[in-house]
Amino acid sequence: MIESHAPARQSVPSPWRGPARLPVRPATGRFLVLAGVFVCAACGLVYELELVALASYLIGDSVTQASVVLSVMVFAMGIGSLAAKRLSGNAAIGFGAVEAALALVGGCSAMALYAVFAWTGGWGGLWANGPRWLLVAFSLAIGLLIGAEVPLLMELIQRIRRQDAGGAVADLFAADYVGALVGGLAFPFLLLPFLGQLTGTLLTGTVNAVAGGALVLGLFRRDLTPRARWALLVANLAVLVVLASAAALVGDFERAARQAVYGSKVRVALQTDVQEVVLIGGMKGRPLDLFLDGRLRVGGHDERRYHEALVHPAMSGPHTRVLILGGGDGLAVREVLRYPDVRRVDVVELDAGLVRLARHDPGLSALNEHAYGDPRVHVTTDDAFCRLRGTPSAAYDVVIADLPDPGITASTKLYSEEFYGLARSVLRAGGRLVVHAGPVSVRPRAFWTVDTTMRAAGLATTPYRVHGLDSDFPPGPDRSAAASHGPHDWGFILAVDASGGERAPRLSLDPGGPRLRTLTQADLTADEESAARSRVPERLPASTLVHPRY
């Protein structure tokens, strides 16, 4: 019998799972890993907030977009964590690759979303929803990569010094959550106001790539083969070159994208503290178009049709004191000032930058006939809801709500039952409230929900619908692509306080009022009938602060 001296097969620990061969003491290495967790968590939250903010601006309805981004991202994080289990044996190189990919995808996400919106948003078919699909794709990709971080970092920190799982998780999550706090505060207070969404996101990607690459190549380089070190170094350098090149081209990119969205005649592009304001035309006889956050707010060919229909039916009655909510462009103020017996006009506008533009821009100030120079006009920079809460009862004869459409989430509270209750309280006896309630043809349910909500607040209402002319104006060299898709109509609702048994107000014009260019009594009768034909058959619930219906 021959005795075998061959060694029995034994389980040999993988060099990737053994103690890390660090160039520093374990305590220092552990601190550096937690610092990397902190930085990467901050970057990850910036990517999330950037997607929510940009999607709300490009697509609208911020509640829906935030829900899509966060739910898809959290789901993807779970999938990413599971997938990262396959990389645990190569945690260092796996983490480095994940961070390089995350820096590239997250850093370029804002520019890619804006590019799809600018160059494909006007097409039909699949590309009409291009920004929505890309939003989901980026949320999924970023979520997968963020989810893969935690298991890999847990493996790395345990290879530095073994400890109980609960303690390691507590340390890791503490650094992660503190980093998320810093990223969450840095985005609205530093990155967005000082750098903008595109440059801010590119800078975040750069920080992400540097932090991830430095952690792996500096702290765990002895655990990597020479080939892996070079591959990771080249990948990170390539990511940094892409991000730096994109940052250098941001200015040219924004101008080209703005031209694709608005046309070639952009005269003013201003990012205020509240919104992006773009002016097209308004000089040398060209009609002026005003865009707020990419939405056409004033169309030069039919702005008088809009503002005369908004203001003058409400002025058919007492109008000594007038309150205008919104309307920072000064065009509703212009119409009010055409009545010489008006003694005071209070304008409550959230965006001080828009008011400054309306005062000083030669095109816009000429269009509003320098309304803000009239001593009867007083401007307050405030939220309309907050201003109404602080306004004494029976303070105004007329209240004009010239606000963004109710479908925009930021405006939803300004179309609530509580808001209309406050508006009713500031009306004097016989006073009138008029509300811009959005396009009827596009969103009839929203329009009639506004009507229901106003009646629930104790107002007697008369809806009317004014057809626009701007959408029928053919695109041309003086016309932007976005402006050619202006609203086909506007819905308005005139109301009075019904607490004393008053009936719905009659649509009429002041017989002693100014001569109007676009509006006649016959037009108002037709506008009321047009609104009645669009009525939604089912009974719609009122919209409240805690249960918005738009």
UniProtKB/TrEMBL annotation:
CDD domains per record: AdoMet_MTases
Residue ranges occupied by any PABS domain in the UniProt entry: 238-497
GO CC annotations on file: plasma membrane
Pathway assignment: Amine and polyamine biosynthesis; spermidine biosynthesis; spermidine from putrescine: step 1/1
Region (Disordered): 503-550
A Pfam family matched in the record: Spermine_synth
Binding site for spermidine: H307, D329
Record membrane topology: Multi-pass membrane protein
Record has rRNA-binding as a keyword: no
Active site: D402 (proton acceptor)
InterPro entries per the UniProt record, alphabetical: MFS_trans_sf, PABS, PABS_CS, SAM-dependent_MTases_sf, Spermi_synthase
EC category name: transferase
GO molecular function: spermidine synthase activity; thermospermine synthase activity
UniProt-annotated binding residues for S-methyl-5'-thioadenosine: Q275, E349, D383, A384
Main location: membrane
PROSITE patterns associated with the record: PABS_1, PABS_2
Record flagged with keyword Transmembrane: yes
Keywords: Cell membrane, Membrane, Polyamine biosynthesis, Spermidine biosynthesis, Transferase, Transmembrane, Transmembrane helix
UniProt EC number: 2.5.1.16
GO biological process: spermidine biosynthetic process
Record note on quaternary structure: Homodimer or homotetramer.
Chain's role: Catalyzes the irreversible transfer of a propylamine group from the amino donor S-adenosylmethioninamine (decarboxy-AdoMet) to putrescine (1,4-diaminobutane) to yield spermidine.
Entry similarity comment: Belongs to the spermidine/spermine synthase family.
The name this protein goes by in its record: Polyamine aminopropyltransferase
